[in-house]
């Protein structure tokens, strides 16, 4: 049968069409990778400019925009800042079956325990499977981050170094989340450098 297929050039045509399809898929993947790279470069430049800015409020808005675009690059649907009847939420996304509320801070100082605790309270007022992602570009004092470790913890913490690694193309946002969530689940750590 194979010899007959070769003789009738059927096998060659099917093989050629399959190869052509693989080639087109490869080209499409290359385009996606190049577009992601260009967008990451633009976001990295925006991030760098905001670091040197004296206007911390504007830096906060830059961070919110950056997060929305960063999530889009990695194909995670992200809802930008919104208000409920009594709360301001900086963002929301769904990842591997869980909903995450986002709090994004870009101030000169690291967040206090009460700031993170206030965000945790927002998360706690939502349906039980809701988690929180607290983003502080300045990082966290170790004793403050430790207050959110362990049993009952439903928030994870990331900082500017995490964002920088993603923007530099060294890590995939989804892989970063998987690693941090895994540490939180296995070791009870809200923050992992």
SSE layout and pairings?
Blueprint: H1 2-7, H2 10-52, H3 56-73, E1 78-83, E2 88-95, E3 98-105, H4 113-124, E4 131-136, H5 142-146, E5 155-159, H6 160-167, H7 173-187
Parallel strand pairs: 3-4, 4-5
Antiparallel strand pairs: 1-2, 2-3
Helix pairs in contact: 2-3
Task: Give an overview in words.
It is a single chain. This protein has helices at about 1-5, 10-50, 55-75, 115-125, 140-145, 160-165, 175-185, and strands at about 80-85, 90-95, 100-105, 130-135, 155-160. It is elongated. The model has no long low-confidence stretch (mean pLDDT about 90). The N and C termini lie far apart (about 60 Å). By secondary structure, the protein is of the alpha/beta class. About 25% of the residues are buried. The chain has a five-stranded mixed β-sheet, sandwiched between helices. The protein has seven helices and five strands, in the order H-H-H-E-E-E-H-E-H-E-H-H. Helix 2 (about 10-50) runs antiparallel to helix 3.
List keywords for this structure.
5 strands; 193 residues; elongated; single chain; 7 helices; alpha/beta; 5-stranded mixed beta sheet
> What coarse outline follows from CA principal-axis ratios?
elongated
Main β-sheet: number of strands, strand sense, barrel status? 5 strands, mixed
Helical content stands at 55-70%
- What's the mean pLDDT score? 89
Strand content: 15-25%
Low-confidence stretches: none
What's the alpha carbon Rg, rounded to whole Å? 22 Å
Structural classification: alpha/beta
Looking at how many chains there are and whether they match, the oligomeric state comes to: single chain
């Amino acid at each position: 049968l194979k010899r007959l297929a070769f003789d009738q050039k059927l096998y060659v045509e099917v093989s050629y069409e399959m190869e052509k399809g693989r080639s087109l898929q490869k080209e499409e993947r290359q385009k996606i990778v190049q577009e992601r790279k260009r967008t990451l470069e633009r976001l990295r430049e925006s991030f760098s400019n905001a670091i040197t800015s004296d206007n911390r409020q504007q830096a906060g808005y830059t961070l919110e925009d950056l997060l929305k675009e960063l999530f889009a690059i990695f194909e995670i649907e992200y809802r930008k800042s919104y208000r409920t009847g009594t709360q301001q939420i900086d963002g929301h996304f769904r990842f591997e079956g869980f909903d995450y509320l986002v709090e994004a801070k870009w101030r000169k100082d690291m967040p206090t325990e009460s700031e993170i605790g206030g965000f945790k309270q927002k998360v706690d007022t939502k349906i039980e499977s809701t988690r929180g992602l607290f983003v502080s570009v300045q990082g966290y004092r170790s004793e403050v981050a430790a207050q959110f470790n362990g049993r009952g913890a439903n928030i994870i913490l990331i900082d500017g170094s995490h964002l920088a690694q993603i923007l530099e193309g060294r890590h995939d946002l989804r892989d970063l989340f998987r690693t941090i969530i895994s540490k939180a689940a296995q070791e009870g750590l809200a923050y992992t450098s």
